[in-house]
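Raw record, unedited: NAD(P)H-hydrate epimerase
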Amino acid sequence: MELAGLSCATAIAKAYPPTSMSRSPATVLVICGPGNNGGDGLVCARHLKLFGYQPTIYYPKRPNKPLFNALVTQCQKMDIPFLGEMPPEPMLIDELYDLVVDAIFGFSFKGDVREPFRTILSILNGVTVPIASIDIPSGSGSKEVGSGVLPCLEDGMWRRETLEGSSQTCSSP
């Protein structure tokens, strides 16, 4: 997790340098799932803070395991705030954050997307700020995520593009 989180933070800093964001420091919402992908997100948030970003974490389903508890404690000791609830509207996320890190589900996710993640993914489908996904866009293998979201690999990073009502395709530059 330490190497994965550091690698993700480094890739994000390269693709979305803090100086290219509209706020200073650049604000990042890191949304963590209950598994290893969520742990990667916690580590990523720590490193983003060290790189000059201002991360905020939303972690709705925290596993009660020593490793994950330690990762949460490390973030808290670095004064990285944790949200008690997800911003309910995409527009609110767009207003508050320059970037979203999707650390919800990874490659190993199987099955249907359940609450609260179904609602979270629905909200994320409406944001206009960039979403950087760890592993793959969460829920991309599920029918429940919604139409019009396409995972796109650009510059070695997965990104989402909204294609509703268009014939756009996603290709690497």
